[in-house]
Write a structure and sequence with these properties.
The chain is mostly helical. It has 15 helices and no strands. The chain has a domain of about 160 residues.
Length: about 350
């Protein structure tokens, strides 16, 4: 028996080697990690939706389910952008204009207390500070544009995959009968395990997003903010990004709050975001993640902290699935606890 045949026969060794190679490939393409993960998330949710509907209506084709769903999502996004982006821009300009007028007014220079602040601003060269701030905002907008591009591409890829999910599955099964079928069989083994773990964590994050949206919406109702439905939809979408999503929502919410009640409402919004951020970080994330993955809260905290340090914001999303994935491979822990609650999916590559 040749060395290659011995290697193929040794299932444990070949799977370890293949896993190392896969990790190396992802490391080489780490700049595209956001697109990979977004495509996976959108596709996972879409396939789950298709399977759920097909349980009720077995003969319906995936394209008739996914096409209307994606059209509704696009329509909602267009509605939010068309109604609130101009308002955000106008409020931003208004805020900077009012601050500049106040800074240059006689009221500031004639008031001895405000004059101290004025002289201090002169010493720190406020004009240059504003230019630096504007440059930072432009860079931030550029990064948001790159993220938006990844979202659009991932959205399209997930649509094409899900609309032809049966054909994709059929095409993927052909690799299991190829000359190097063991490679694709092992990839399928790892893929199914990761889908199981990621699906459970994604379910937990959806619950967290619902709680965040409910708390935010209740606060906005008490503040009598306009466009509650659209703002709640925006908060829900951003809440799907762990921890960071709540903070990102602070920017548009602050602009809208300023248009309604001035700086006092902005302070209320900041306090609300801080409270929700603390609730999510120290209660919702550990509680939901540990209950869904059956991990002790201590390990959940440690994994979230370490994965965020290693992978950034995405680490908060994929850290727990990766950790449970490796525990499952090592035979230490299987997702779903004793009952081994698994997400049943058809074989895909």
């Amino acid at each position: 028996m040749s060395l290659y045949d011995k290697f193929v026969e040794n299932k444990r060794l070949r799977r370890v080697v293949l896993l190392i190679i896969v990790i190396g490939v992802f490391y080489l393409f780490k700049s595209m990690m956001s697109m990979f993960l977004l495509t996976f998330i959108f596709t996972f949710l879409s396939v789950q939706l298709v399977r759920t509907v097909q349980k009720k209506i077995p003969k319906i084709k995936p394209v008739w389910i996914i096409a209307p769903t994606y059209l509704i999502i696009i329509a909602l996004l267009v509605f939010v952008i068309a109604n609130y982006v101009p308002q955000l821009v106008n409020q931003t300009v208004k805020m900077f204009t009012s601050l500049q007028s106040f800074y240059e007014s006689e009221e500031v220079r004639s008031n001895p207390y405000l004059n101290v602040i004025y002289n201090y601003l002169q010493q720190i060269n406020l004009d240059n500070q504003i230019k630096v701030a504007v440059t930072s905002v432009v860079n931030y907008i550029s990064s948001v544009g790159a993220v938006g591009f990844n979202i659009v591409i991932s959205f399209l890829l997930s649509f094409f995959y899900t609309s032809q999910v049966e054909q994709m599955n059929s095409f993927g099964r052909q690799f299991l009968d190829s000359k190097y079928s063991w490679i694709f069989a092992d990839l399928q083994y790892y893929g199914q395990k990761f889908v199981n773990t990621f699906g459970v964590v994604l379910e937990a994050q959806l619950m967290i997003a619902v709680v965040n949206t409910a708390l935010t919406t209740i606060t906005l109702l008490f503040m009598r903010m306009p466009g509650i439905i659209a703002l709640a939809a925006m908060v829900f979408i951003l809440s799907l990004v762990p921890v960071a999503g709540v903070i990102i929502s602070l920017v548009p919410l602050s602009f809208v709050a300023y248009s309604v009640g001035g700086i006092r409402y902005v302070i209320y919004i900041v306090i609300m975001i801080i409270v929700i951020h603390l609730i999510e970080t120290y209660f919702l994330n550990p509680q939901f993640m540990s209950s869904m993955t059956h991990l002790p809260i201590f390990f959940t905290f440690i994994v979230l902290i370490v994965s965020e340090e290693l992978l950034g914001t995405w680490g908060l999303i994929v850290g727990i699935p990766i950790f449970v994935f490796f525990l499952d491979i090592l035979g230490v822990h299987s997702i779903g606890g004793p009952k081994k609650r698994r997400i049943k999916l058809k074989k895909t590559l």
